[in-house]
Amino acid sequence: MTLKKAEARKKSGKSPARLVVIIPTLGRGGLVTRLLAHLEGQSRLPDEVILSAPDETHIEALRSYLFPVRTIFGKTGLAAQRNNALRSVLGRFGIITFFDDDFIPADDYLESVGRAFDQHQDWVVVMGRVARDGACTAGLDWEEGLFALHVPERNPPTGVADHVGAYGCNMSIRAGAIGDLRFDERLPLYGWQEDIDFTSQLRSRGHVVRVNAIRGVHLGAKSGRINGMRFGYSQVANPLYLIRKGTVPARFAMRLMLRNIAANLGRSFWPETYIDRRGRLYGNLLAIFHLLAGRIEPEYILRMPK
To answer: Most exposed residue of 1, 12, 66, 94, measured as fewest CB within 10 angstroms of its CB?
Structure first.
């Protein structure tokens, strides 16, 4: 925050909401180290950063940073790791920002998030625009991600868009709106739609928006992800579970599920080298079989081969 902005805040009697960054991680210690160093370049530093991992083997030795860094260890799984961190920060911060360990935010990201919540009291979830998403490709390395973040964009989108839910690689939540809501740990391991499930429920408490001026790059690192068959099962089982749960609009969930099935089916003949399309398709079909047999459950992936 600049001196002029700080003086303006002082005159108005308002102090900026305390902001914590939570980074769930699994098997990506090197990326976490680079992300922490990158966050030191933020125009508004986080008041604290929480690393949530299964155990200390997933995090490299930490040095001193310009902000406090804490580690929390517990149950494996994205939803569980988010919840572990949430429990430790509720009541202490006004804004909770979740970053994937392979997300690179622009240097004004946190400052822009704080300003967005300050200026729009009816917003409860704010996500930034993913300028480039390596999850849709073979992935980006750190240097490619930084280049993509800083290369000038032609006619970038502007404005604000309402969303059913937020993309979990970068999402910020007004802490006061959370209450007793938690991420659903019935969506195990990689989670798959645990972010949409959680933030969609917050729509009853305010707006869930994407602010296009807030930017970042998602590297889409392939390490730490579950195998194709398990992921394919989740692509069908999780949306069906959320429809039954009533937290995600059926049209949204069905469109997502059918699009993934169609992609896996169509590309299984000429699959990408970085996606196990046939494994995903097998997982899709297994989940459909379980649906017809009346036994669909997201946790089944825990009993599938690793």
So the answer is: 12
Task: Clarify whether residues 200 and 72 are in a common domain.
Answer: yes
Give pLDDT tens digits for 165-195. 999 999 999 999 999 999 999 999 988 999 9
How many C-alpha atoms does 295 have within 13 Å on its Cβ side? 6
To the question of pTM greater than 0.85 for the whole model, the response is yes
Range of the domain at 154: 3-218
Handedness of CA 260, 265, 266, 269 (dihedral sign): positive
Do 236 and 213 reside in the same domain of the chain?
A: no
Residue-wise pLDDT for 92-101, tens only, equals 999 999 999 9
157 within a domain of the structure (yes/no): yes
Q: Mind listing the pLDDT tens digit for each residue in 40-89? A: 999 999 999 999 999 999 999 999 999 999 999 999 999 999 999 999 99
- Asked if residue 100 belongs to a domain, the reply is yes
Share of the chain above pLDDT 70, in %: 95
CA neighbor of 288 nearest in space, from 254, 247, 245, 263: 254
Cα(first)–Cα(last) distance of the chain, in Å?
47
- Domain assignment present for 223: no
Residue of 223, 228, 304 lying closest to 263 (CA atoms)? 228
Report if residue 293 sits inside a domain.
yes
* CB contact set of 76 (below 8 Å; sequence gap of 6+): 26, 54, 189
